[in-house]
From TrEMBL:
Similarity remark: Belongs to the PEP-utilizing enzyme family.
Name recorded for this polypeptide: Phosphoenolpyruvate-protein phosphotransferase
GO molecular function, one term: metal ion binding
Lineage: Bacteria, Pseudomonadati, Planctomycetota, Planctomycetia, Pirellulales
Gene Ontology BP annotations: phosphoenolpyruvate-dependent sugar phosphotransferase system
Length: 581
């Protein structure tokens, strides 16, 4: 038995026979193409790019559905790389002028791009280099220059061992058979790690050289909780890990039994527990797990999962499908929350040096009314089928909110004049995601029907931390006392203004932090469908009085780490079933 230590990137335990992927690199020969065949060679490359682009969009859609929009956007970024006009100009020049084969041109150009990124000695740009190499490998597969790994025809549970896995390879792992994976290279901030975590696939990366000494079929244990990989474990070790895995399965089954019970505290306080979704088909999982409604319908997938900009009918059909599936339960539709840098259908901004602080979300919509109007029209039209509510993201000023509401009214008048069925009496809300909105919330509360705190962006903008930057990622904590004080302020203003408030960010899907939110006075949470059972169990295991005591204590602490350790201890005491050793 050999125990190896790596970097844990996705929790859980996986046990199974090893499938060792080819550790050899690949070399693409420089085969000259006759001048008369150059155009045909470029056409072959064009079709390869189309095929890879389609696969990236599929990866984005499926990964967003399973793991959330942020994870899916990894493939949106790759799609932008693939479609970069400068890349295609360079490839065409090499094929037509230098008579290189399509495969060799792809190999040379993209290897050069990746090498340039790595030479900048920036870990974040090194991750982008891996994305470039992922695109290279996919194009070479399509061009027939390299063979695909033997993952298509699996018939039994498998643990994948590889030198490295690209984000695309990870997203396309056969979840029916691949139980987990480990790689020699990689880090916790890489895109492969993010995809693995989003797909809930136990994984350990960055182990170092080891797979040369492992044969196919060798029994492997991947401990994604502790970052361990056990090769050829003994019976005692196998029994111990099987016990842990069984405990996790048993917990999931017990939690599933709560789906028909309300999210109600031990002392009878009802909490609205809704679902965050990206795709219409997720409503099935939301209903099955007992969601009280859709607290956040992220509509970005309509823009990201298609080569064409969505039409009004595309919007209308998607929204109608969701609201009908929820059978009268409320559906909160958030309008477009993308940055101009992510809008591949049309160039909306050039040379934005800091897109997070630039043209995005409501700012983007208000500057592109031909983009915004079809979405608002579709929302009002779909509202005839059920309880639809509209929510505007990243509101920073009163003027933005009023402009958005005015446009909604104008759209309603247009529909009326055209004799198109619609409802205009739908509730209108806003996301609270920036400190400016919190400071002015008493004024905003006079102009909206409901409020929703997006803790992901609120933490980012409050703490001045780019959550994708590994140099400062440890500072990105929604449990930071500064963020908690802002949330507390929002709750007080919500109560004094009698305007409903919910929390729909990642914070609400963590059991300990959910207790804290309840103690601060929040009575509406919206979480991914997969988190509903865990959060419902948490809510039903405590009293509001105890939550208030927890919040009072947490608000005296000085750092996010202290808050989190305290909350973990509280969960271990109050809901020990959720702690799987």
């Amino acid at each position: 038995m050999i125990e190896l230590q790596g970097i844990p990137v996705s929790p859980g335990v996986a046990i199974g026979p090893a499938l060792v992927l080819d550790t050899e690199g690949y070399r693409v020969p420089n085969i000259l193409v006759p001048a008369g065949e150059a155009e045909g060679e470029f056409t072959r490359l064009y079709h390869a790019c189309k095929a890879v682009g389609s696969r990236l969009r599929e990866n984005q859609a499926s990964t967003s559905a399973a793991a959330g929009e942020d994870t899916g956007n990894i493939f949106a970024a790759q799609l932008q790389m693939l479609n970069d006009p400068r890349l295609h100009t360079e490839l065409r020049r090499r094929i037509q002028n230098d008579h290189e084969s399509a495969a060799y041109a792809v190999n040379r150009v993209l290897q050069n791009y990746a090498g340039a990124l790595r030479r900048l000695a920036n870990p974040l740009l090194a991750d982008r280099a891996e994305d470039v190499l992922d695109i290279e490998k996919q194009l070479l597969f399509e061009l027939g220059a390299v063979s695909r790994p033997p993952l298509a025809d699996l018939t039994e549970p498998t643990i994948v061992l590889a030198r490295t896995l690209t984000p695309s390879e990870t997203a396309n792992l056969d979840r029916d058979h691949v139980q987990g994976f480990c790689t020699e290279t990689g880090g916790s901030g890489g895109h492969t790690a993010i995809v693995a975590k989003g797909l809930e696939l136990p994984a350990v990366v960055g182990i170092g050289r080891f797979i040369d000494a492992v044969s196919n079929g060798t029994l492997i244990i991947v401990d994604g909780d502790r970052g361990r990989v056990v090769v050829d474990p003994d019976e005692e070790t196998i029994a111990s890990y099987r016990k842990r895995r069984k405990a996790r399965v048993s917990l999931s089954e017990r939690l599933a039994e709560l789906h028909e019970l309300p999210a109600e505290t031990a002392d009878g306080v009802r909490v609205r527990l809704s679902a965050n979704i990206e795709f219409p088909h997720e409503t099935k999982a939301a209903v099955a797990r007992g969601a009280d409604g859709i607290g956040l319908y992220r509509t970005e997938f309509l823009y990201l999962s298609s080569e064409e900009e969505p039409s009004e009918e595309d919007h209308y059909n998607a929204y109608s499908e969701v609201v009908r599936a929820m059978h009268g339960r409320p559906v909160v539709i958030r309008t477009l929350d993308l940055g101009a840098d992510k809008m591949g259908h049309r160039p909306l901004a050039e040379n934005e040096h800091n897109p997070c602080l630039g043209l995005r979300s409501i700012r983007l919509s208000l500057r592109n009314l031909d983009l915004f109007r079809p979405q608002l029209r579709a929302i009002l039209r779909a509202a005839v089928h059920g309880d639809i509510r509209v929510m505007f993201p990243l509101i920073t000023t009163i003027a933005e909110l009023r402009q958005a509401r005015m446009l909604l009214n104008l759209v309603a008048e247009d529909l009326k004049d055209a004799d198109v069925p619609f409802r205009s009496d739908i509730p209108v809300g806003m996301m609270v995601e920036v400190p400016a909105a919190v400071i002015m919330l008493d004024m905003f509360a006079k102009e909206v029907d409901f409020l929703s705190i997006g803790t992901n962006d609120l933490a980012q903008y409050t703490l001045a931390v780019d959550r994708g930057n590994e140099y400062v990622a440890d500072l990105y904590q929604s449990s930071d006392p500064a963020v908690l004080r802002l949330i507390q302020s929002c709750v007080k203003i919500s109560k004094s203004s009698d305007v409903p408030l919910s929390v729909c960010g990642e914070m609400s899907s963590m059991p300990g932090r959910a207790l804290l939110l309840l103690g601060l006075g929040v009575r509406s949470l919206s979480v991914p469908p997969s988190a509903i059972p865990t959060i419902k169990k948490t809510i039903r295991s405590v009293s509001i009085t105890r939550c208030e005591e927890i919040a009072k204590r947490a608000m005296t602490l000085e750092a996010a780490r202290e808050v989190d350790m305290y909350l973990l201890n509280q969960i271990a005491e109050l809901v020990p079933e959720l702690v799987v050793e």
